[in-house]
């Protein structure tokens, strides 16, 4: 190993980039005072990690950067590179040439170290040149005044120089580092022992806490099991109640349809009764008119009878005897005619009285019929109002989904804010007439299953229920559901079975 070249750029007096080649046979550098001979040795020591500004003959580390002259401006960076021939692998790197570079910036005084153009730490540079004789304080670099200081130095300092030259310092430094690590390890071990002792004192309380925690977990599992059993029982009871309610609703729906028909018939009968009452009122008015006309005729006949009696009396009193016989015959004729007319009028009066009596009886019957009809009409109105109230109750029950579980109702009310909602199974299917009870009984609680377009929508709906504690619901994503069919051999057996009507989906 030997130093092949030094490349200086902006270091002290080397304003321009300069390269000094050390070919085999060169033993020294000569020149007049002030030409920069010492700057070369300073550059070597600076690259090898010299941190003492005084040793570099300056007052500040930035003094190693070219400060400028009358015709040259100052530079902002100093850089020195040492190129070593490592063909014999004296340095512990697998390269034939090794470049060690140090760079310093005026702004911020930031320094960089590089080995073969890769950024490294100062420690990496020191480890590389350790025991190679190239240390900044080794005998390989002896500056002015070093000989006298070596001669005047204490035995311990000279011993360090000899150890550096003999290659012992590396092992001593490693020994010191190992001892320091051993001390740190001992300190850590002591701290660990203190921690162990402290933990041993806390072990008994922790054991009691552990026992309590285990007991808590055991009781929690028992409570969970009890709660599950209670929930299962409640779900079973709720399902039974739900089935009863569904049957009641179905019955109420049938009754609603029947009541709607009864209402239509009653309304039609009411209209017919009103028309008949109008006709009866007209007939009563007509009969009352005829009765008044007959009574007027009777009154006229009685008036004429009185007039005839008075006329006859007058004639009898004022006529002479000679004309008496003639007048008597005339009066007899008049009386006979009057009797005949009176009898005729009396007969007609009696007949009219019978007709009036008959009309009054008919009128009484009509009034009784009207009372009965009115009572029947009132009962019909009452039944109609009850039927309408029941219908409104059923409509409210269906539209507000009162028969659904709380979780299903919550999803229905929030369906606009949930993605992928399709509907409740019971509302999406249409069952053929006469098979409603059979299908709904077979489906049971599945009538309240909620259909979703995909699994993401179902997960969102489940998250919504959990977040709002709104209950539970069963979701069926269309993307995961698969069709199921009855096996052909089973169908053959079913078709030959007495009473077989078909599969459930044949009636939906």
Detailed description of the structure:
With 508 residues, the chain is an alpha+beta fold. It contains eleven helices and nine strands. The chain has a six-stranded antiparallel beta sheet with strand order 2-1-3-4-5-6. A three-stranded mixed beta sheet has the order 7-8-9. Helix 5 (169-318) runs antiparallel to helix 6 (324-399). The protein is rod-shaped, with a radius of gyration of 66 Å. The protein starts with a strand and ends in a 13-residue tail after the last helix.
Cα gyration radius (Å): 66 Å
The amount of helix comes to 55-70%
Q: Provide the low-confidence segments as ranges.
A: none
- The class by helix and strand makeup works out as alpha+beta
DSSP strand content:
5-15%
This entry's quaternary arrangement is single chain
Strand count: 9
What general form does the structure show? rod-shaped
The number of helical elements comes to: 11
Give a quick account of the main beta sheet: strands, pairing sense, barrel closure: 6 strands, antiparallel
Order of strands in the sheet with most strands: 2-1-3-4-5-6
Question: H/E series, N to C?
Answer: EEHEEEEHHHHHHEHHEHEH
The termini sit apart by 97 Å
What do the pLDDT scores average to?
79
């Amino acid at each position: 190993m030997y130093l092949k070249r030094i490349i200086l750029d902006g270091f002290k007096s080397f304003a321009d980039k300069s390269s000094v080649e050390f070919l085999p046979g060169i033993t020294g550098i000569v020149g007049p005072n002030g030409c920069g001979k010492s700057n070369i040795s300073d550059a070597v020591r600076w690259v090898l990690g010299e941190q003492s500004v005084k040793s570099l003959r300056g007052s500040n580390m930035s003094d190693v950067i070219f400060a400028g002259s009358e015709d040259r401006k100052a530079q902002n960076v100093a850089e020195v590179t040492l190129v070593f021939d490592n063909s014999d692998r004296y340095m512990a790197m697998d390269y034939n040439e090794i470049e060690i570079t140090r760079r310093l910036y005026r702004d911020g005084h930031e320094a960089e170290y590089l080995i073969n153009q890769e950024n490294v730490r100062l420690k990496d540079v020191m480890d590389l040149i350790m025991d190679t004789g190239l240390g900044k304080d080794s005998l390989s670099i002896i500056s002015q005044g070093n000989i006298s200081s070596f001669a005047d130095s204490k035995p311990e300092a000279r011993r360090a120089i000899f150890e550096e030259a003999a290659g012992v310092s590396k092992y001593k430094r490693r020994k010191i580092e190992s001892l320091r690590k051993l001390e740190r390890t001992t300190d850590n071990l002591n701290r660990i022992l203190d921690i162990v002792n402290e933990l041993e004192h806390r072990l008994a309380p922790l054991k009691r806490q552990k026992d309590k925690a285990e007991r808590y977990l055991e009781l929690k599992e028992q409570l969970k099991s009890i709660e599950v059993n209670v929930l299962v029982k409640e779900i079973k009871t709720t399902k039974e109640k739900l089935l009863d309610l569904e049957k009641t609703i179905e019955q109420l729906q049938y009754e609603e349809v029947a009541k709607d028909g009864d209402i239509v018939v009653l309304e039609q009968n009411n209209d017919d009764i009103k028309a008949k009452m109008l006709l009866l009122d007209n007939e009563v008015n007509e009969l009352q008119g005829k009765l008044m006309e007959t009574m007027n005729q009777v009154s006229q006949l009685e008036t004429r009878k009185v007039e005839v009696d008075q006329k006859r009396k007058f004639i009898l009193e004022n006529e002479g005897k000679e004309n008496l016989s003639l007048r008597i015959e005339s009066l007899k004729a008049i009386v006979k005619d009057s009797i005949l007319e009176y009898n005729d009028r009396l007969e007609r009066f009696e007949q009219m009285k019978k007709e009036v009596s008959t009309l009054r009886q008919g009128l009484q019957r009509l009034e009784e019929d009207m009372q009965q009809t009115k009572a029947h009409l009132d009962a019909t109105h009452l039944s109609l109002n009850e039927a309408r109230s029941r219908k409104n109750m059923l409509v409210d029950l269906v539209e507000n989904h009162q028969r659904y579980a709380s979780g299903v109702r919550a999803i229905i009310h929030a369906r606009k804010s949930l993605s992928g909602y399709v509907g409740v199974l019971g509302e999406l299917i249409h069952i053929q007439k006469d098979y409603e009870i059979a299908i709904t009984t077979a489906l049971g609680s599945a009538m309240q299953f909620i259909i979703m377009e995909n699994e993401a929508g179902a997960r969102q709906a489940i998250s919504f229920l959990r977040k709002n504690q709104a209950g539970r619901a069963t979701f069926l994503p269309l993307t995961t559901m698969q069709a199921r069919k009855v096996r052909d051999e089973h169908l053959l057996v079913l078709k030959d079975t007495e009473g077989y009507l078909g599969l459930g989906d044949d009636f939906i």
